């Protein structure tokens, strides 16, 4: 195995991280945008108003996607463990 195998594993790991982070961050961003639009429409300039809904959205996303993310990490880890002998020779 050459360096391209390690590059492929690294690319897969980065893609996995990107997908998992997006699953957590995007709901918080959407809720933050909706709260910001609401604050702009009502002229409420309270900074703490946007924190709690984003926090709740992030926690709900973690609860909803947690099992899926754990399964993806386990599949990648098992594939990585299976490929170790091929990478060493």
UniProtKB/TrEMBL annotation:
The gene is fliQ. Belongs to the FliQ/MopD/SpaQ family. This is Flagellar biosynthetic protein FliQ. It comes from the Bacteria. Role in flagellar biosynthesis. InterPro entries: Bac_export_3 (IPR002191), FliQ (IPR006305). The chain crosses the membrane at residues 13-39, 51-70. The keyword Transcription does not apply. One of its GO terms (cellular component) is bacterial-type flagellum basal body. It comes from Grimontia sedimenti. It is a multi-pass membrane protein. NCBIfam families: fliQ (TIGR01402).
